[in-house]
Amino acid sequence: xxxxIAVDGPAGAGKSTIAKKIAKDIDFIYVDTxxxxxxxxxxxxxxxxxxxxxxxxxxxxxxxxxxxxxDDQGMQQVFLNEENVTPYLRTEEVGRMxxxxxxxxxxxxxxxxxxxxxxxxxxxxxxxxxxxxxVLPDASLKIYLTASxxxxxxxxxxxxxEKGVECDLHQIEKDIIERDRQDMSREIAPLRQAEDAxxxxxxxxxxxxxxxxxxxxxxxxx
Length: 222
Ligand code: DC
Hints:
Blueprint: E1 4-8, H1 15-26, E2 29-32, H2 33-46, H3 54-60, E3 66-70, E4 76-80, E5 83-84, H4 92-101, H5 105-121, E6 124-128, H6 131-135, E7 141-146, H7 149-162, H8 169-185, E8 198-201, H9 207-221
Parallel strand pairs: 1-6, 1-7, 2-6, 7-8
Antiparallel strand pairs: 3-4, 4-5
Bound molecules: 2'-deoxycytidine-5'-monophosphate (DC).
């Protein structure tokens, strides 16, 4: 029997930052499922396929193989048809395409078994949108991590500015609200808080506070 922790929540809530820290602290394997959807989105972008073309996307899915590996530091690496595409996944363009194409059933089916199988072979902490509600309904602990759209936009804005990228705070917040709407309103596996998930609103919390809150919740369930 392995432990599994599901962390779901909207874009920019800090899921991957806190998930990575927690996984390291308690020695769990971290699975970033958003990166898997991003890898599939990259495939469609490279082929110039329209993200709304459900028929074309569905017919391409059997040609796509996404697999995961880990480097020396334990960082997740995502392979798209054997190519390590990890460096190309964290762009706004890929994120937008992933949000669109992840609403298509064939895309979700392509990843579901792989995600579930990972939980059968190790202690894992998996983050995404539908982990507690759909992928791992029996997870040992479910966290719904959120923050106000203003706080999420502000964090993203600072992150981009630190990298020297020119950006507009209002536009970032608008994009975040649109992504929430898209992820929450799709028919299949929409983003929502599982009934048995612990709600953590990180708007007024530091990263360390969120990490210790989640670890404390896990300790209660061990
Ligand atoms: O967490 P992220 O920004 O890397 O995710 C990119 C998109 O992938 C997100 O907008 C919706 C989709 N996604 C999903 O549908 N289900 C998941 N478990 C994870 C991500």
